[in-house]
Amino acid sequence: SADLVAAANGCFRALGLGDRLDPVRDAATAFRGGRAMLAAGGLDPVGVETQYPLFLDRYGAELCVHTRLYPGAMAAVEALAGAGYAVGICTNKPEALAEALLRALGVRGAFGALVGADTLAVRKPDPAPLVETVRRLGGDPRRTCLVGDTETDRATARAAGVPAILVSFGPGGDTVRALAP
């Protein structure tokens, strides 16, 4: 989230507004995406849409400065894969940025599929990206479980009719506990 916040603050600084978001205080806002951060920083809808492509450029240029994997995340992925489960990523981050981030973190090879926000005509919480991720993995959507960390992930799982496991150690921890994953 800190790299996302930094990209948004770069947009605000370019407009002469200074830093509007705090990487700690606004970490959960970052989980809602670039447009949400630009709006939270005070831009009107036209400003958000004007700045959004610039935000993506800024984020793409420095997407792995502060980003780290959650402790134990890759051990969990490896344990699932070792037990015969197919593991993929279904994200609302644009596909090229997600691909670049996973490669920068050195973990892209651990995931058999990646579907981003712009891979299909719809994005989460529509179930189609999750179903497409499962299809690319050669799996059965009826035998799928979504592991995530946001309300959007819970809504996606619900829309797809699959169980969800939501981790509570991210910025949205208190929020996801209330979603009854």
Keywords:
181 residues; mainly alpha; two-stranded parallel ribbon; two-stranded parallel sheet
Characterization of the model:
The chain is mainly alpha-helical. The protein is 48% helix and 7% strand. The protein has helices at residues 2-14, 27-30, 34-40, 45-61, 73-82, 95-105, 128-137, 151-160, 173-177, and strands spanning 88-90, 113-115, 146-148, 164-166. The chain has a two-stranded parallel sheet. A two-stranded parallel sheet has the order 3-4. α6 (95-105) links the parallel β1 (88-90) and β2 (113-115). The radius of gyration is 17 Å and the shape is globular. The mean pLDDT is 94.
- As a percent range, the share of strand residues is 5-15%
Which structural class do the helices and strands define? mainly alpha
Please bin the fraction of helical residues: 40-55%
Summarize model confidence as the mean pLDDT: 94
* CA distance, first residue to last residue: 23 Å
* Major pleated sheet: 2 strands, parallel
The helix/strand order is HHHHHEHEHEHEH
The coarse silhouette is globular
Radius of gyration: 17 Å
| Oligomeric state | single chain
Count the strands? 4
Low confidence ranges:
none
By DSSP (H or I, 4+ residues per run), the number of helices equals 9
Tell me the strand order in the biggest sheet.
Answer: 1-2
